[in-house]
Design the sequence.
């Protein structure tokens, strides 16, 4: 039976592994476990009360008004995920393809597409708030200038446009990221394969669907999973552009804002409930972890080794 | 300016160095980052009068202050002295037992404070005061005096006069109101600032007595008039956020701003040239009492577990004193709650007089003790009303219905 003796090599391994393990345990495992534990207690303000089992989970899922708030926020996260899948990852793929084909000005565009990704979300949020300003915003001004004044809208004030304005701003900000990942994937496709295709067909469509798309599957896995996690943890942009309440009247509310409001209160609610907040956090975490694992396994299965 | 700060810093440093070894050091947390220099001065005056006590001020961003304070108190690292919110926000902290209970023995000056001011810092369950209230805020109409004078307009005495003068301002090519409703809490502010006189004292008393709810004709009438007057708000105002609205008024592009008395200082900073006036929005008839909506902002509290309870109490007694109240009013341009304070600034003097005829900012004062809060409900319903998605009747009914979840008088 092998024994880990605390001399020589064994000692070295122990000494080197212990600090990072302690670090991970203290700063990652402990907070997560603590948040899990919080969710099972009743809270009076900040004071931990009795153990209440699953009551907090029951309340956020099935008791009004929490149940409809949860549903509302969750629905918006789903909309955000699918919309960004098209507007961010879909457009990213097309941009990557265009850059890869080295259309004129590709070098300039490669920088231009990636530039917004470097900006912090705070800046992007404020920038788009200015762009969408109902009176002086560049969006409404341009629409009026080109003779389409009826299209000028109070974008962030209507339930029909507010969420889409945020989604659009997010896509503008982050589209460079999937572009870059897809581009890297495309550049790894061996030249021989492309030469072989060229003998068969001149059609770009066939080339994209039969060769490029299957061969960038590993890139797709990465951007899909990251988008999923990002879409369900979405917080900064709605917080900056719509505020904690998901203004107007909850039409931009997402799970991140809802969790924050519930756990820490906001200026207009005055109520703080760590128990319900933690229950929401646990539910969000479990949902993301479960679905992200399934997506990862599924998408991995379709990747082809070259 | 910076020289005074350096001098003050030097003075503070000198005080710190010469401090006896037994000195009592207190930490004091505040969310008023913009008032830091003034608070350092107040603290300097306190320290001069109380040798041996040092107060270290730390300021935090207002929006996250509640979270930071709650977390610190829960973790046992909270400050000795702190600014706390009022009403429901106070109860979050007080109910966990983190605050030192106060009474007129510990802080004798509290005996003369207005009962409504003390109520703001009292927890309902044990009827105990936990903080010395510092300022009242008033929701009313702020106007640009220069624009009014140029157009020959006077403060309106009836609602129809308000509509007529808005019309006149619009015809002169100036935006009548600066307000936008994209920022949720602004929706409540315009209800308090524009419609308090229409809502009326009777309604508030009936509401408190459990005889009326928000589907009452008086409240619905107020929402109806609010919707009508919003025709004079800026184009696309439902997408206009709070800072943009402030800029419209501060820059003189708009003639009126419905908001809290705290805006006056902001506008002065934005545009030192601006000449402002205030009025309580009128009721439907000239003989209706003109009301503003009044509330208290917050208070100064001590930590129940402080190492230096006497020193902390000495500080609370200082902030309850007329000397402090007067300095607070003069340097911070806020309506101090300390009784007997007079105001250099004529506008503040006028506001403190307008406060005599007021109803409370009721969603804050009475309806923030459960989920969903009256504030969140009213904000959402007013936003819908402004976007044409609901009617005043339906909005009033929806607020009542939502509050039924926890507000017992509505539950039968």
Sequence:
């Amino acid at each position: 039976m092998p024994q880990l003796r605390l001399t020589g090599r064994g000692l070295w391994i122990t000494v080197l592994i212990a600090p990072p393990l302690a670090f991970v345990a203290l700063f990652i495992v402990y907070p997560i476990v603590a948040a899990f534990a919080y969710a099972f207690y009743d809270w009076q303000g900040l004071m931990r009360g009795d153990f209440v089992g699953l009551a907090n989970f029951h309340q956020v899922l099935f008791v009004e008004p929490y149940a409809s708030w949860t549903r509302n926020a969750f629905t918006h996260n789903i909309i955000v995920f699918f919309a960004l899948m098209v507007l961010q990852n879909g457009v990213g793929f097309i941009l990557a393809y265009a850059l890869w084909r080295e259309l004129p000005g590709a070098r300039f565009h490669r920088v231009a597409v990636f530039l917004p990704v470097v900006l912090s979300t705070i800046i992007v949020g404020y920038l788009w708030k200015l762009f969408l300003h109902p009176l002086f915003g560049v969006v409404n001004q341009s629409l009026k200038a080109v003779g389409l004044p009826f299209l000028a809208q109070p974008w962030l004030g209507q339930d029909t446009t507010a969420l889409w304005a945020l989604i659009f701003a997010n896509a503008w900000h982050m589209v460079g990221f999937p572009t870059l990942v897809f581009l890297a994937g495309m550049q790894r496709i061996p030249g021989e394969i492309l030469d072989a295709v060229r003998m068969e067909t001149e059609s770009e469509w066939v080339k994209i669907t039969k060769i490029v798309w299957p061969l960038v599957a590993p890139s797709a896995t990465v951007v899909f999973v990251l988008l999923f996690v990002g879409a369900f943890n979405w917080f900064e942009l709605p917080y900056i552009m719509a505020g904690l309440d998901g203004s107007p009247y909850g039409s931009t509310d997402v799970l991140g804002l809802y969790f924050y409001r519930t756990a820490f209160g906001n200026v207009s609610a005055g109520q703080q409930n760590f128990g319900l907040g933690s229950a929401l956090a646990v539910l969000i975490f479990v949902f993301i972890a479960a679905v992200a694992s399934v997506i990862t396994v599924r998408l991995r299965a379709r990747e082809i080794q070259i | 300016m910076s020289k005074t700060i350096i001098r003050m810093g030097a003075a503070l440093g000198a005080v710190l160095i010469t401090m006896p070894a037994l000195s009592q050091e207190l930490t004091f947390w505040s969310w008023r980052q913009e008032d830091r220099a003034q608070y350092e001065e107040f603290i300097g005056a306190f320290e001069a009068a109380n040798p041996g006590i040092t107060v270290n001020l730390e300021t935090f961003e207002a929006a996250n202050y509640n979270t930071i304070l709650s977390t610190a108190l829960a973790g046992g690292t909270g400050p000795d002295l702190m600014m706390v919110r009022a009403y429901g926000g106070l109860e979050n902290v007080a109910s966990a037992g983190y605050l030192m209970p106060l009474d007129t023995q510990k802080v004798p000056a509290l005996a003369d404070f207005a009962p409504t001011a003390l109520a703001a810092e009292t927890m309902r369950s044990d009827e105990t005061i936990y903080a010395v209230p510092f300022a009242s805020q008033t929701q009313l109409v702020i106007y640009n005096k220069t624009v009014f004078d140029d157009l020959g307009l006077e403060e309106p005495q009836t609602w129809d006069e308000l509509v007529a003068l808005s019309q006149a301002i619009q015809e002169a090519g100036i935006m009548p109101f600066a307000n936008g409703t994209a920022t949720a809490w602004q929706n409540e502010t315009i209800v308090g600032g524009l419609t308090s006189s229409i809502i009326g004292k009777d309604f508030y008393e009936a509401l408190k007595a459990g005889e009326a709810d928000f589907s009452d004709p008086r409240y619905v009438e107020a929402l109806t008039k609010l919707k009508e007057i919003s025709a004079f708000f800026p184009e696309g105002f439902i997408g206009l956020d709070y800072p943009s609205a402030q800029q419209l008024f501060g820059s003189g592009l708009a003639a009126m701003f419905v908001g809290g008395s705290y805006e006056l200082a902001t506008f002065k900073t934005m545009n030192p040239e601006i000449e402002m006036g205030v009025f309580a929005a009128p009721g439907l008839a000239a003989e209706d009492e003109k009301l503003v909506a009044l509330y208290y902002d917050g208070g100064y509290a001590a930590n129940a577990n402080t190492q230096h309870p006497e020193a902390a109490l000495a500080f609370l007694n200082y902030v309850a004193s007329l000397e402090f109240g007067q300095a607070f009013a003069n340097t911070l341009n806020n309506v101090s709650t300390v009784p007997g304070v007079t105001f250099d600034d004529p506008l503040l003097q006028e506001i403190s007089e307008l406060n005599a005829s007021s109803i409370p900012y009721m969603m804050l004062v009475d309806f923030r003790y459960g989920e969903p809060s009256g504030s969140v409900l009213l904000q959402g319903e007013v936003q819908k009303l402004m976007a044409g998605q609901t009617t005043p009747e339906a909005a009033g009914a929806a607020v009542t219905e939502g509050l039924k979840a926890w507000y017992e008088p509505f539950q039968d």
Notes: Chain B touches chain A through 52 residues (CB under 8 Å). Chain B is about 45% helix and 15% strand. The first helix of chain B runs from residue 2 to 18. The first strand of chain B starts at residue 24 and ends at 30.
